Amino acid sequence: MNPLWLQEIVHDALNEDIGQGDLTTEALIPAEMMGEAIFLAKGAGVVAGHETVKEVYRQLDPQVRLHLERENGDRVEPGMVIARAEGSIRSLLIGERVALNFLQRLSGIASMTRGVVDQLEGLTCRVLDTRKTTPGLRLLEKAAVYAGGGVNHRFGLGHGVMIKDNHIAAAGSLSQAVKQVRSRLGHMVQVEVEADTLEQVKEALSLDVDAILLDNMNLDQLREAVHCIDGRVWTEASGGITPTTAREIAQTGVNGISLGWLTHSPTALDISLDLIVKKEVLS
User: Fold this and answer.
1) Is the pTM here over 0.70, yes or no?
2) Annotated active-site positions, please?
3) Average per-residue pLDDT in the chain?
């Protein structure tokens, strides 16, 4: 992860929260008071986002010492300690909400991803994310998917060609869209096309494409499409996939399933910060 980008994201988050200062902490807590903050899992899940917590306290107070008890990608159960931070209580409290916001959201994404990955155990189908991410937080959210055992799809519009229904409508046909892309970009760029029907699947197979996204197809259509493709290109199922349907869709033989809700609708992992006040200044 680009450290300059991470610094900017965390800086903006801290600036948004702190504003002109933490009125409560600065009024109550002496500057010399030291302590320890314990990041505690209150629910079961998978940890992600340690890099954001590190950056929060690096920017607020380089003297804060962060000790990780669990790494990104580790499973946790209620009561497990995720990390400990030692230093100025003022710094620990001022950074608390921003650190927890990042850690809870990203751990929620990792946990949801791991839940789907676990359902596909024994299958070769991959769990993919999408570009349906929080504006400005895509790299962090995709890193959380990876921590949960998923595979990252395109990071942005410049990371491969994806010809979807609106592109096809604008180009006039699927064939014309692929031909235009290939004439402009050449053979080194991966091209994936979206197919809503078996007729489009057959048309795509006659073209120079690397992958086919099978969009909103039922199980019978997916099986027939996979049979028709017969391993000639990479296949991805998308649209309406839920935790209860993920395995049966994967069992149709597709190479991957893409799930927008991993990043656009995550349930945050419940994590608390418990403070221990120390009388003496830490050495």
Assistant:
1) yes
2) 97, 132, 164, 194, 215
3) 95
